[in-house]
Design a protein that fits this description.
2 strands; 8 helices; two-stranded antiparallel ribbon; mainly alpha; elongated; about 160 residues; Arc Repressor Mutant, subunit A
Length: about 160
Amino acid sequence: MRGRAAYELISAGLANNVEDVLTRAHLKQSTGYAILMDLIVSGLIQRDGTTLALGKRSLDDVAFAHGLVTVATDRVIRHRAERLLWQVWLDRRFGPPPPDIAPEREFPLQQHVGDFDSDLDRYLASVVAEGPRDRDPTAEALELLHDQLGAVIVGRDSP
């Protein structure tokens, strides 16, 4: 990574001597010479006097020599497995519920629970017949203050 800019300049033909590489890659002289030496030692570039050119080794050769193909393959396999697990989790979390496999009941539930609909109808009829409760704006305001702000009424002591 450290020599990437220098290598790319040389491989693109934008720099063919040390001064061009240092200038175009914005490198200090000591850092630039160290980077160029690393690239020369690794065989990625070669120096012939003052001229720099691509070496006999490619980036693929270096990657293969360091086992990066295996690392990349392992990473791809791991990411695919993680994606599979993630998809399973999403399907379980947000997918349709599993089908109901409970056996059918042999007795009608209505007999044991009662007539829910008629009870609800009687309750609603009584609420409608009673009508809305009387509004007290002061009590509603105090209740709102208590709910939203936690306000309480503080009484004054009588003398």
